[in-house]
Amino acid sequence: MTTAENISRVEPIKLKEEEPAAISPRRLIFRRFLRHRMAVMGTIILFGVILYVTIGSIIYTEADSNFNNTSIKLEGPSQEHPFGTDRVGRDVMIRTIYGGQISLLIGVSAMLVGVSIGTLVGAVSGFYGSILDSFLGRVTEAMLSIPNLLILLVAAKFLGGRIRDLDLFGRTFSGSVVVIILIVGFTSWMELSRIVRANVLSLKEREFVIAARSIGASNLRIIKSHILPNTLAPIIVAATLSIGAAIITEAYISYFGLGVQLPSASWGNILNDGRTQVRQAPWLWISPSVLIILTVLSINFVGDGLRDAFDPQSDKTV
């Protein structure tokens, strides 16, 4: 057999196919989120609202938002006052800028209060069980049985004027802002506590928790290092959605005159100013209403996107 024949019989070497690089969990979550078009749109809108209230506060001062000139009261939108003026001649656009800061502050702060309480109650209840679980479960059920609106209105009525105005970061905040944050936070933790409790009940019997307990890890360390990190997904989704709920709650409390009080402006009390001028001066309620709708819808879209992003079933279509 000639050398040429031997060479012709040699089978071609098959190159080993390169295995696709592993995708990190964070990248998977980000990819799922980007597939949710409404969530991406919501992120853009929310970013625009944040820019509006941030850049606007650089251009205009808080004194401008409270400055009144009765000679121009109830003027319609113009080049000088794009959103018109209110009953005492204040510029509505500037008030929506500073009112947006307060509304967003209330939404985020109330979310932190509610998420902290809900996570703590749910984790302790699910991990320790027994009598403590029964007691915390009855407290949660009792809170759920009382209408939140009733609690909010009664608490705002009795606590609204008892906290002095606060001066922080060069700004004056009405004491009612603190009251609203605490009230909304303390009445919005129950649903999250149930979600966290259910997750903790399923996680505390897993192998990695049993292994941590077998090497002498304390209960606090197990909860902090092993259980809560695996419960972050529902907590993040619930936290995102609760911001929009807190903004809506502040708006209708302020609409009844029991929410944020002067000198602080909020989208809710701007609406309250315009409730008696619905036909005569529609610009008083249109601008804060549009901002509330855009902000809450965008936050809800982001929450929906996060919920899908943290869902492992979405990998089937990645």
What can you see in these coordinates?
With 318 residues, this protein is mainly α. The protein has a single domain, classed as Orthogonal Bundle (MetI-like fold). It is 67% helix and 2% strand. The chain has 14 helices and 2 strands; from the N terminus they run H-H-H-H-H-H-H-E-E-H-H-H-H-H-H-H. The chain has a two-stranded antiparallel ribbon. Helix 2 (25-35) crosses helix 14 (283-309), helix 10 (207-214) packs antiparallel against helix 11 and helix 12 runs parallel beside helix 13. The longest helix is centred in the middle third of the chain and has 37 residues, at 92-128. The chain starts with a helix and ends in a 9-residue tail after the last helix. Mean pLDDT is 82; it is low at 15-19.
CATH fold type? MetI-like fold
Second-tier CATH architecture: Orthogonal Bundle
- Taking the alpha carbons of the first and last residues, their distance comes to 54 Å
Shape: globular
Number of domains: 1
- Helical content (DSSP H or I, runs of 4+): 55-70%
Instruction: Indicate the proportion of strand residues.
Output: under 5%
SSE-based structural type:
mainly alpha
N-to-C order of helices and strands: HHHHHHHEEHHHHHHH
Number of strands: 2
**CATH H-tier superfamily:** MetI-like
Question: What value does the Rg take, in angstroms?
Answer: 27 Å
Integer average pLDDT: 82
The main sheet orders its strands as 1-2
Major beta sheet, specifics? Answer: 2 strands, antiparallel
CATH top level class name: Mainly Alpha
**Which parts are unreliable, with pLDDT below 50 for 5 consecutive residues or more?**
15-19
Tally of alpha and pi helices? 14
